[in-house]
Amino acid sequence: MRAVIVEVPGYRLAEPLGAGATGVVYAANRLSDGRSVAVKVVHPELVDPQYRDRLRREARLAAAVEHPGLVRVHAVGGEGDQAWLVMDRLSGPDLQRLLDEGGPLPVDRAVAMLAEVAAAVDAMHAAGVIHRDLKPANIILDGDRPTVADFGVARQLASLESSTGMDLSGGAAWLRSGTPSGPSLGAMAGTVAYMAPEQWRGDPVSAATDVYALGGTLFSLLTGRRPFDRRTLPELAYAVAMLPPPAPSEYGVPAAFDQVVRTAMAKEPADRYPTAGAFAQALRAAAAGDVAPVVVKQRGWTRRRIGKWVAIAAPVLVIGGVTATILAQGNQQPTQLTVCAQDATVRDAPRSRTVIATVHHGDRLTPISPRDGAAWVHVRLPDGRSGWSLTDYVRHQC
């Protein structure tokens, strides 16, 4: 864990309970009465006067909301490059730990939990606070009740660099080396996997940003996988910018939930559910099998819209050596696949690091077997060798 200050006036800090993109959470006791609490110490590099003022303002707003699904904030403080806040200490695990240890949740349990979470998020939105970092790791069980933590703590993300916590200015070796794989997501994936497109672009966030994260969290609870699960940052940036939201039904989940995820994770904020409460209603309706068609505005691929997605994908993809084009699946299904990316790799197995060939835009490959989920396809090369390629990069039509 990253080194941070370990003295907070009025509190005795003990062992770290966890660390994330914004700070380290410690078990602590309040000296005045011995009460057991949790103290989050924000990473110093994120702290400036503007951030500290916003943290205090949002903590006051959060404290004014009485909802059993929200972790209460008791105090906020700090000077210079220090910022910390004192919260309820909960004994239960977070939902990411449940997924890591036990796999996907039963549908009825996932629906019940996330509907409660959405109600808590809706209450906080009504108070004018946006979470910005909603994900399974920030939903903690208090007994059997899911409780949302870290509301208003995550810094508003102004760039891809600040959002990922990576040094993209030249300090990262993968930038200088030009390796095509780019950086491995690793622990960083727990945050960026649930980030809405507007956060990647550095645009202002809104309640719709949290609705997107609710959709991604629903997908994870139902399938045990992260949305757009990719090994590298360039691959993830491309998926968020260009690919349709993932479908839970591809992993054996009832198809009614596909529409909920698809609407919540729409690329444009205006195309998502208008509130977290509306998301919860749609979620319960899907569980009951009572799903009315949702009419979503279909936005054409105008030059302006293409430019917005290129603003996300192009810098990351070019840096990572994976310059990609917009892919479109046609109604015709030719027997051969075409490489639609500038360059793509063929590997000896799905998600393997062993590359057996590099193919280029326009090359033709022959599909051998059905896709592994929606991510990989088994192909035969023109020289007779076979391997696996990401379906993002090889399609029936480009």
TrEMBL record:
One of its GO terms (molecular function) is protein serine/threonine kinase activity. CDD domains: STKc_PknB_like. SUPFAM superfamilies: Protein kinase-like (PK-like). ATP binds at K40. It comes from the Bacteria. The chain crosses the membrane at residues 309-328. InterPro entries: Kinase-like_dom_sf, Prot_kinase_dom, Protein_kinase_ATP_BS, Ser/Thr_kinase_AS. Residues 11-284 form the Protein kinase domain. Its EC number is 2.7.11.1. Keywords: ATP-binding, Kinase, Membrane, Nucleotide-binding, Serine/threonine-protein kinase, Transferase, Transmembrane, Transmembrane helix. This is non-specific serine/threonine protein kinase. It comes from Kribbella voronezhensis.
